[in-house]
From TrEMBL, chain A:
Lineage: Eukaryota, Metazoa, Chordata, Craniata, Vertebrata
Entry-linked Pfam families: Beta-Casp (PF10996), IntS11_C (PF21386), Lactamase_B_6 (PF16661), RMMBL (PF07521)
Family annotation (InterPro entries): Beta_Casp, INTS11-like_MBL-fold, IntS11_C, MBL, Metallo-B-lactamas, RibonucZ/Hydroxyglut_hydro, RMMBL
Gene: INTS11
Protein name from the UniProt record: Integrator complex subunit 11
Keywords: Cytoplasm, Hydrolase, Metal-binding, Nucleus, Zinc
CDD domains noted in UniProt: INTS11-like_MBL-fold
Primary localization class, coarse: cytoplasm
Family: Belongs to the metallo-beta-lactamase superfamily. RNA-metabolizing metallo-beta-lactamase-like family. INTS11 subfamily.
Compartments reported by the entry: Cytoplasm; Nucleus
Gene Ontology cellular component terms for the protein in this record: cytosol; INTAC complex; integrator complex; nucleoplasm
Residues in Beta-Casp domain copies: 245-363
Taxonomic source organism: Balaenoptera musculus
Transmembrane stretches, start-end: none
Residues covered by the Metallo-beta-lactamase domain: 16-233
Automatic annotation (TrEMBL), chain B:
GO BP: any one term: regulation of cellular response to growth factor stimulus
Family label: Belongs to the metallo-beta-lactamase superfamily. RNA-metabolizing metallo-beta-lactamase-like family. INTS9 subfamily.
Organism lineage string: Eukaryota, Metazoa, Chordata, Craniata, Vertebrata
Assembly: Component of the Integrator complex, composed of core subunits INTS1, INTS2, INTS3, INTS4, INTS5, INTS6, INTS7, INTS8, INTS9/RC74, INTS10, INTS11/CPSF3L, INTS12, INTS13, INTS14 and INTS15. The core complex associates with protein phosphatase 2A subunits PPP2CA and PPP2R1A, to form the Integrator-PP2A (INTAC) complex. INTS9 is part of the RNA endonuclease subcomplex, composed of INTS4, INTS9, INTS11 and inositol hexakisphosphate (InsP6). Interacts with WDR73; interaction is required for the assembly of the RNA endonuclease subcomplex in the cytoplasm.
Name of the featured protein: Integrator complex subunit 9
UniProt region (Disordered), positions on chain: 548-573
Keyword Cytoplasm: yes
Sorted UniProt keywords: Cytoplasm, Nucleus
Keyword Nucleus (UniProt): yes
Beta-Casp domain span: 305-433
Organism expressing this protein natively: Balaenoptera musculus
Length: 599, 671
């Protein structure tokens, strides 16, 4: 029995180090290859030894697909391809291909230079890894090999984020990666056609959240920033260099312009300016509005937002600083946070999800005394605000996508178990499909029953289709033919054609039955009586009286002859071929009952 | 399968393909060479043009002198320029299901088709094709609408009058169908019917046909198309290039195994080498500027201009031209330059890698930044303040009949220091120049046409091996001006089928198979038997379901269980349905074995009324010319057995007949 198997190595009932193995029709595909920001030991990467303990990964995996450039989706890629060893193709969209190595390098620097980790992947490994990448365009059907094909759909979430359809023959799986069903200030909404996959693997970060309108959240955000700046406070917004940062910049830029505010807005690290360049060059991946107006005004050229210098953090007066990384787990955002945390006039706004174990997660869960390196305790007096700007689909959006794709089964990843449970029930109730939520290392097996495509000869098909045009078209039509199987070539042809192709002659099987009738009249008159009798009984059949005196019912021939000995008896010769067996047999038994008396 | 040919222009095709149940229009080219018969539309009042003498017949009759003007021996229509549309009468265009666009030059007739023929289908094109196509249309509409012309000449179109006119007006075809330019509103409406597609995207049309665009290497987003079902494949090649310029390279491999390959859009200048032409372009440009003259380059706002700017970017410093201003004047100049930078995914590999840095893929960004290249929407406004001479001006339209180029021709035509360099191959430069004669400025003809030449075509055809090639008639003979050049035509076996405007071709194509899906439950129930080594057969009796042009075979319904207690209502219920098909039989009956079996008694324990069948003891076998006759004497039954037939002649003893039937069937194969 063919089946689809799915095993999350990461992101099973968890957010972080997304990595999902899919086996479909004998093909093995790895979806995403992320790192976990909550760990800095072995657990930060997926356990690739699960795939194969002894063999080479390249022999086992047909391809790797990366959905977008966030590190929890691609952070383990150089480790996987260069240190564990994988030489097969890695597919991602072009923006992902452009931005991914920069974030990886950023990540590497923090891990090696700041934390002093040994045995980490090197810059060269990032470069070598990226050489294995094949760029995929939206909606392009990429033939990985003769049987396996993949296709990317727009996912919103971040620049270049894509959902992927993995297809072998008539079996398919769709993996959403992270996606967003409502367009935001710089990206469009995710979209997929009614592709009816066997399985939809969807993220479920916001499985239980239905977010209020985006406008309200934006107004809230602007109000908080504005108030803090008015009272002379500093606002820290920890962000990832690409994605949310650009959206919030557009938001602040327009607000500053409208309100004519003077407080400076800074963007940390040179990376960001570069990041905006990427957005300018990948305009087709942004939303409708930006694409339409980019010639007159490129939304990613900011007037009010300037590059940040480390020294600015100590300058007096209000300011707004966007700093990386987004979860306050390392780097510049953490440095600035430590400087500003003690002043209640200041504010930190966390615009996205924070993984457990990060400083971001701690302060969001209410902790106000943080243990830092060297047993130092940092007291957090500044205001801590959480704003969900994170571009994930909410529960409504997830349901909407399930409705769009019409899958036979749904599998949840990239979320918390408790919330998944709720969404799972909702999906099963509303769509009446099975929904799974495996933990890491747990395998879900779905039996499939793919249909078998064969070539049907047009002659045979047209014959059947023509019958379908008859008034009783609603009745199921039986198609009769012969399937010729030669190597892997399957053809369905009419039986006549099959015989002919194989050089076989048809064997004619014919029956002639003698039916004795008591009838004193002449043979011709007997024939007439037979004709009118059959005509009245067989209303739906073609009954004919031929000039030579014989009667036909369809292709069955009935002749009347005199009995050699008994003149009061006539012999009816009923003759038919095996193809008319039922009718022939019926006729003989009907005629055996005798003819009705002529009135 | 039929092909309706609506355009006679080989590089601006418009064909309609009827394939299975779909009607697909391939491209929507607009023949603009018709505008060469019209007087230019000057941006500022031109005394020279307005004072041209009216044309009169040889006998002095001057009734046409308002419509026709004479300039240096050529006659021009003094009216709003008009375009030659594709045929609209050959086929009912409201029946067209989809229009496939291959590149932005081949969609210029789109508004005429989508807005005025009752068309209700979808247009498919890539994003760069649509965006740049929009720019070309916008520019065209702008050029024509900003110089309103009161006069619209129509008298000359009268067939009896046209006959009296001098060439080329006399020979102009289908003048009655020539139309004025569309409006921006029509353009927007037409473009709103386009659905964006990406290379190698498989698009299903009604479940019957699949269409796929492939990179054609000619322009940003330019595509060839595959139109296929599971068993038939038509390739539509239109405007392809194998040269390495800015677009993504041509995808040739996907064209393999075509039943029919429709080949259009080859180079219009098969004798010119594009690389050589670019070299000549640069050196003539430098020469003119060094001598203090101005250079005018009539061009489209997108396409080859990107390559020319890139060449100049590399050339100007070494040629000492750094101080010379380059002007690009078009209502869409800015948009064109900006758009070119955001389509990285549609560019050649070298340019693609630039965006990873991230840098703009085209160096004209740097030319603009360093103020070497300036762009303006028109000669009015800022341009008049910035204008310095000597300079180089890129502007449209290449026909020299409208657009800012008309002004520069009037301005610079009188001085032999200046040069006009023709790079676009769509218009004959001599005809383009005719209404400006006499002219003192130098004219250089450097046509750059990167589309396939005949050598490349013959190589391509050898490689992809289509069963049949279909092409415009122009490609099946050498060009009229070089009739001895037998190498300037398509050479393939079997010879290409050619078409001309308003012709309908029946394509040599026999469909034999269609895809059908066998449901797994049915597949499980099939019993294959091996007939020959490697060849197996299985008889299939199944229910056919057809929905959205997809066919599925499902297991036949189980025979209805005879409902016990109920009495049958009508006798006719008994009558068997003659549509239940019996399998065909094959093989032959081994007579000895047949007789032996008959002689033996058989047991059928499960069948209650046939507990035992007694063997026959009175069987007689007679040989005949073709076989044997087996006689069951007491039962008065006769069985004629021949190589390919068996005939059972018996009394009305159904039990015996069925027994004989089943025995015969046992020896035969069923299909």
């Amino acid at each position: 029995m063919p089946e689809i198997r799915v095993t999350p190595l990461g992101a099973g009932q968890d957010v972080g180090r997304s990595c999902i193995l899919v086996s479909i029709a004998g093909k093995n595909v790895m979806l995403d290859c992320g790192m976990h920001m909550g760990f800095s030991d072995d657990r930060r990467f997926p356990d690739f030894s699960y795939i194969t303990r002894s063999g080479r990964l390249t022999d086992f995996l047909d391809c790797v697909i990366i959905s977008h450039f966030h590190l929890d989706h691609c952070g383990a890629l150089p480790y996987f391809s260069e240190m564990v060893g994988y030489d097969g193709p890695i597919y991602m969209t072009q923006p992902t291909q452009a931005i991914c190595p920069i974030l990886l390098e950023d990540y590497r620097k923090i891990a090696v230079d700041k934390k002093g980790e040994a045995n980490f992947f090197t810059s060269q490994m990032i470069k070598d890894c990226m050489k294995k990448v094949v760029a995929v365009h939206l909606h392009q059907t990429v033939q990985v090999d003769d049987e396996l094909e993949i296709k990317a759909y727009y996912a919103g979430h971040v620049l270049g984020a894509a959902m992927f359809q993995i297809k072998v023959g008539s079996e398919s799986v769709v993996y959403t990666g992270d996606y967003n069903m409502t367009p935001d200030r710089h990206l469009g909404a995710a979209w997929i056609d009614k592709c009816r996959p066997n399985l939809l693997i969807t993220e479920s970060t916001y499985a239980t959240t239905i977010r209020d309108s985006k406008r309200c959240r934006e107004r809230d955000f602007l109000k908080k920033v504005h108030e803090t700046v008015e009272r002379g406070g500093k606002v820290l917004i920890p962000v990832f260099a690409l994605g949310r940062a650009q959206e919030l910049c557009i938001l602040l830029e327009t607000f500053w312009e409208r309100m004519d505010l003077k407080a400076p807005i800074y963007f940390s690290t040179g990376l960001t300016e570069k990041a905006n360049h990427y957005y300018k060059l990948f305009i087709p991946w942004t939303n409708q509005k930006i694409r339409k107006t980019f010639v007159q005004r490129n939304m990613f050229e900011f007037k009010h937002i300037k590059a940040f210098d480390r020294a600015f953090a100590d300058s007096p007066g209000p300011m707004v600083v966007f700093a990386t990384p987004g979860m306050l787990h390392a780097g510049q955002s953490l440095q600035i946070f430590r400087k500003w945390a003690g002043n209640e006039k200041n504010m930190v706004i966390m615009p996205g999800y924070c993984v457990q174990g990060t400083v971001g997660h701690k302060i969001l869960s209410g902790q106000r005394k943080l243990e830092m390196e060297g047993r130092q305790v940092l007291e957090v007096k500044m205001q801590v605000e959480y704003m969900s700007f994170s571009a994930h689909a909410d529960a409504k959006g997830i349901m909407q996508l399930v409705g769009q794709a019409e899958p036979e089964n749904v599998l949840l990843v990239h979320g918390e178990a408790k919330k998944m449970e709720f969404l799972k029930q909702k999906i099963e109730q509303e769509f009446r499909v099975s929904c799974y939520m495996p933990a890491n290392g747990e395998t879900v097996t779905l039996p499939t029953s793919p249909s078998i495509p064969v070539g049907v000869s047009l002659g045979l098909l047209k014959r059947e289709m023509a019958q379908g045009l008859l008034p009783d078209a609603k009745k199921p039509r039986l198609l009769h033919g012969t399937l010729i199987m030669k190597d892997s070539n399957f053809r369905l042809v009419s039986s006549e054609q099959a015989l002919k192709e194989l050089g076989l002659a048809e064997h004619q099987l014919r029956f002639t039955c003698r039916v004795h009738l008591h009838d004193t009249r002449k043979e011709q008159e007997t024939a007439v009586r037979v004709y009118s009798h059959l005509k009245s009984v067989l209303k739906d059949h073609c009954v004919q009286h031929l000039p030579d005196g014989s009667v036909t019912v369809e292709s069955i021939l009935i002749q009347a002859a005199a009995h050699s000995e008994d003149p009061g008896t006539k012999v009816l010769l009923v003759s038919w071929t095996y193809q008319d067996e039922e009718l022939g047999s019926y006729l003989t038994s009907l005629l055996k009952k005798g003819l009705p008396q002529a009135s | 399968m039929k092909l309706y040919c609506l355009s006679g222009h080989p590089t601006l095709p418009c064909n309609v393909l009827k394939f299975k149940s779909t009607t697909v229009m391939l491209d929507c080219g607009l023949d603009m060479t018709s505008t060469l018969n019209f007087l230019p539309l000057p941006l500022v009042q031109s005394p020279r043009l307005s004072n041209l003498p009216g044309w009169s017949l040889k006998d002095g009759n001057a009734f046409l002198d308002k419509e026709l003007k004479e300039c240096s021996g050529h006659v021009f229509v003094d009216s709003v320029p008009e375009f030659c549309l594709p045929e609209t009468e050959l086929i009912d265009l409201s029946t067209v299901d989809v229009i496939l666009i291959s590149n932005y030059h081949c969609m210029m007739a789109l508004p005429y088709i989508t807005e005025h023929t009752g068309f209700t289908g979808t247009v498919y094109a890539t994003e760069p094709t649509v965006q740049i196509g929009r720019l070309l249309m916008e520019e065209l509409v702008n050029f024509i609408e900003r110089v309103p012309k009161a006069q619209s000449a129509s008298l000359w179109k009268n067939k009896d009058i046209q006959r009296l006119l001098p060439s080329p007006l006399k020979d102009a075809v289908e003048v009655s169908t020539w139309r004025r330019c569309y409006t921006m509103q029509e353009v927007n409406s037409a473009l709103s019917k386009i659905q964006l597609v990406g290379y190698s995207q498989k698009i299903e049309l009604f479940g019957a046909v699949q269409v796929t665009p492939l990179s054609s290497g000619y322009a940003l987003g330019s595509s060839n198309w595959i139109i296929q079902s599971h068993y038939e494949k038509v390739s539509y090649v239109s405007g392809s290039s194998l040269l390495t310029t800015h677009p993504q390279p041509m995808d040739q491999a996907s064209l393999k195994n075509s039943d029919v390959l429709i080949l259009t859009g080859l180079t219009q200048i098969p004798t010119a080498n594009p690389d050589g032409m670019v070299g000549e372009f640069c050196s003539n440009l430098a020469l003119t500027v060094r001598n203090g003259g101005n250079v005018l380059v009539p061009c489209y706002p997108s396409g080859v201009i990107y390559d020319l700017l890139e060449c100049l970017y590399q050339y100007i410093d070494s040629a000492g031209l750094s101080s010379i201003p380059f002007y690009f004047i078009s209502p869409v100049a800015n948009s064109s330059l900006e758009f070119s930078q955001i389509f990285a995914e549609w560019l050649c590999h070298n340019k693609q890698t630039k965006v990873y840095l991230p840098e703009p893929p085209f160096p004209h960004a740097e030319l603009i930044q360093t103020n070497k290249l300036k762009h303006y929407p028109s000669i009015h406004g800022d341009f008049s303040n910035d204008f310095r001479q000597p300079c180089v001006v890129f502007t449209g339209h290449p026909s020299l009949r409208f657009g800012d180029v008309v002004h520069f021709m009037e301005l610079w035509g009188k001085s032999s220091l200046n040069t006009v360099i023709f790079t676009e191959p769509d218009f004959s430069y001599l005809e383009a120049l005719a209404p400006y004669q006499p002219l003192a400025m130098k004219c250089i003809y450097c046509p750059i046409d990167t589309r396939l030449n005949f050598i490349q075509v013959s190589k391509l055809l050898k490689e992809v091996q289509p069963l049949h090639v279909v092409c415009p008639e122009q490609y099946t003979q050498p060009p009229p001006a070089q009739s001895h050049r037998m190498d300037l035509m398509i050479d393939c076996q079997p010879p290409a089928m050619s078409y001309r405007r308003a012709e309908v071709l029946a394509l040599p194509f026999k469909r034999r198979y269609e895809k059908i899906e066998i449901m797994p439950e049915l597949a499980d129930s099939l019993v294959p038997m091996e007939i020959k080594p490697g060849v197996s057969l299985a008889t299939v009796s199944a229910v056919l379901h057809t929905k959205d042009n997809k066919h599925v075979l499902q297991p036949p319904p189980r025979p209805a269980q005879p409902t016990g207690g109920k009495k049958r209502k009508r006798a006719s219920d008994d009558i068997p349905d003659c549509k239940v098909l019996k399998p065909l039989l094959s093989g032959s009956i081994p007579v000895d074995q047949f007789v032996q079996t008959l002689e033996k008694s058989t047991h059928h324990p499960p069948v209650p009324f046939l507990l035992e069948q007694h063997g026959f003891s009175d069987i007689k076998v007679e040989d005949t010319a073709k076989g044997h006759i087996v006689l069951l004497q007491e039962a008065e039954t006769l069985i004629q057995i021949e190589e390919d037939s068996t005939h059972i002649i018996c009394d009305n003893d159904e039990m015996l007949r069925v027994r004989l039937r089943d025995l015969v069937l046992k020896f035969l194969q069923k299909f």
